[in-house]
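Practice set, problem 2.
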Amino acid sequence: MKEKILKNRNLVDTIILVLVGFLLCIPLLSSNINIYADDGIQHIARAFGTLKSIIEDGLYPNVISSFSNNFGYSWNLFYGPLSTYGIIIVNFIFKNFIVSYKIFAFICLALSGIFMYKFAFKLTNSNNASVLISILYMTFPYHLTDLYFRNAVGEFASFIFIPLVFLGLYNLFYTEDNNYYLGMGAIGLILTHNISSLIVAIFSLFYIVFNLEKIKESRVKKGLIINIVFILLITSFFWIPMLETKIHTDYRVYETESMSTPESTANSGLKINQLFVTQNNGSYIFELGPHIIIMLALSIMGVRHIKSEIKENYIMFLISGLISLWMSTKYFPWKYLPYEVCIIQFPWRMLMLSGFFFSLVCGINIYTIVKKFNYKDVVVISLIAVGYTAIFLQFIPKDNITNIDKLVLGDFSGREVEVVAGAGKGEYLPSKAYADRFYIATREDKIFILEGNAEIENEFKFGKSLTAKIKTFEDDYTVFELPYIYYPGYEVRIDGMIAETFETEKGFLGFVMGKEDTAEVTVKYTGTKSMKISMFISFISAIVFSIYVWKKH
């Protein structure tokens, strides 16, 4: 039996990590866990609305037609789609978005541990050290804060891809092995969470600078270029339409200071005591945990005995962990940094990188210092790490929640400040529409005549499709406002001919007809040419990348 376990050790460790993931997700089994708290309602509503839009409107669910009081709202042009489609895919099996959200969260947690194990094993060549590092990563308090307190599924899913990015970079600089993990990890991050991608990119750049001398090698240079090209091409279906929105018109999310300012970011930094103690006042869990602090303190002893082949990376990870921890606090000079960096909004997001780097450092410290480090040591420390998370169960928000299909989603009331289920704070509205949300709340769901005179007959709207027969009179031109908020991708046809569209003063979709004209007007959301081209590029690139990975593997 022992020989079989040793022979299949990687498989056994993988099963253990899945079981640990299940153990950490046991509280999710409770029906009164409030997964709608904080960001949860937004992510679940987005998945629900996206699926509904696919069923009703077909391809290109960039705009969720039922949100914004049935005038349409877009998450999918601005926010990575991976977590949304992950929940939707699980929902095909379980037919319940609450259950699907919980199962997707478990999958994310388990995969984060499995991929961390893969990187840790490459680094240490030790199964015991690797499984310990992975469990420390899975149980890192901020990791579980994203799961249970913030319900930030996009950021939570990003934990899957961080180890892959650094595994790819490590292979690129230190081995002859496959560096395509860099591409896999970066693609996953970009399609999952914009802010996490930015944070990981900063520390990836630090890792590259740390290994700048090695870039001169043709193998390294070639590998880096190939990965960057694949990353850009495969994710082009997301970032090209996102950039296109910025070209078409002004959206609230792109306004300076709309999401955060250097001052607001600085004010959101943590106090030192928050890294050590959590108070039961409804706050998030930001503390490191005494077990992590003790194992970090062992770095003073461990650094002298670390194996030479991993010492360079160990020092880099220790420095990176300390820097990311510093960046999470009020004592980092956030208010002096440009707005583009402060878009992270909350400095404590940096704890996701602290958890990654510190898990590696702590695991390596124990592996190095403990003589005859074995599986019993792994079990003891892992039980402490898992057991410590039980302290926070009392803080998890609880409430009896209704299934998402029973809720009213995406409807603005017109109040000056409000958070809407399915539309957040309206940050993805055109700036003009955001400035007059009362108009969205009170507008009738039909075509408006803004200038001139016309008769509108047989008007029928379903989702992102509309038909009507319109007759104009003697005015030189007649201006119409359609019952759709302005997002690129709508196609208006007048008797089959494509009409030019524009954004109205209220941030809606407008078009013009000439005088004394009678025509059949149709509206559909077809996506822009660049959306179609970028989707084709991404599809072909994904196939080529798969072949590239298969050949390399």
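Problem 2, part (b): a different protein.
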Amino acid sequence: MPALPTNCYRTPRGYIFRIVVPEALRESFGKREFKKSLGSDYRAAVSEARLLAVQIDRQFNELRAILEKQQADGCGLDAFLAKPADKRLKPITKVTPELISGIKNFWLASLEADIAWRRTGVDDEEYEDLQESLRSQREAVDQALARGRPEPFKPIIRQLLVGRGYDLLVSADEERELLLSVLPAIQQGNDILQQRQSGRLVTPALDGPVLPAVWEASAPKMDGISWDRLIQHWKDDRERPAKTINDVERYIASLRRYLPKVTPERMTRAEATEWLRREREINSNSAKTLEKKGTLVGAVFSIAVKDELLEKNPFAGFDYSRFALKQGIEKTNRRLPFNEAQLRQLFSVEEGVYSIDKVAGGGGYYSRVWIPLLGLLTGARLDEIATLKPADVLEAPVPHIVIRAGKTQSSVREVPLHSKLIELGFLKYVDAIRQGGYASLWPRLRSNSEMVKDSEVLGRWFNRFIHGTLKMPSTVVFHSLRHTFKDMCRDALIPSEIHHALTGHLSDREEKNVGDSYGTGFSLETKRSQLELIKLPFDLPRPKPFAAR
């Protein structure tokens, strides 16, 4: 295989293009380096890497040309000092959030010089002088904030602005508000210096750019990532289900329609909230639906942030509970476990899933009967059961199923089979499927659409059946079998850590020990002995034996 092009690298997850932005261009380019995933195909990666190299080189050259032109036009400190003294300063006539943030970050960034000074060595007299200065400054700042009287700090802020080439020309009230907004940063800086006096050389965290000096050349930023490119980058990261891609494209299309002027690079948390509120009001979305939409769009942003195409993810750490219990919007019903009467009805020969034989839908008789039985006695999710293959059912050391992929990492697990499933003939059903040469445990459970999973075929049929035919309330759905299993575990006094291991839930223990993550978890024998504590209060009919068609 030929050598890879420059700036193209192979990783365990595929190929990436990565180039460090020259230091002089970083402020204009917007990032320290440019990185993009190229997928796992060698030829496609090489081709795209060569194209990217040309495009990035062109962008670098354009930025250099802009900076050179600005320098030739008289931008810079020399040009600033060459102006008459009374015409040098740039007037500030309005206090803006950007001005406040820039001053605060400049004040905190200036503390870097203190670290360098300390490393040269500080004698006793210098140390005591600084200690006294910090004490008196802290008292002055605390008093100014407590009394709402920041006027003593007016000369300090004005001097700072003059040092950056600005002249503050605002009203007394505006200047007072500016001082009160900046004083907490001075207080924070004082706290940091006090910690350094105690030997903890901490550094401040800046939440934005520092106030630029008037003479500093500022080239326009390069155009940020577009919505289409953001989606494509997310698609290129790894293979995605067609339905997931369709959902992402629909949600982002909705976001763009409602916020037409917002770009991925400039989108804020407030705008994310605004869009979700709009979805709630226009589409009557529940908090759970809003969380699904926000989480999925946030995942698209997350990939771009990881690859440094974006600086922030406006959906990171979003509190979706704020949308809960909105009067007239949030639905009061939720998924509940089946009660005993409903289970008896569901698994009855006369009117339950056993009674539907030749009717089409739901993947056929065996899917309609065995998948709910497995849901009841394993607690597995619908998609986990529907994707099982004959090779995923093993008999040693005890009969069990292997769930190889799931909702989370904890979902990958081995679940023993309850003796009731074996008594009903599940292992014989699996043997018949193997002998028939089928790849899936459910040969007739197939979706005709890329947007719909095979499991959804059974799920939709099941929910229509229990709500329409059996007249059960909307609070029970297929997933209610999982809730029922959890309740049966609790009623059987199975320890929570074991029934969490059976269902693939994370432990809910508040205090954890490092040792909890050691080893492979509970043995199959232990899990099965606990599972057998579950006793059904009624008999389950035996399904018909499988007959290959």
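Answer key, part (b): Confidence is low (pLDDT under 50) at residues 219-223, 326-332, 508-515. The chain has four domains: 8-75, 85-115+129-197, 227-323, 340-531.
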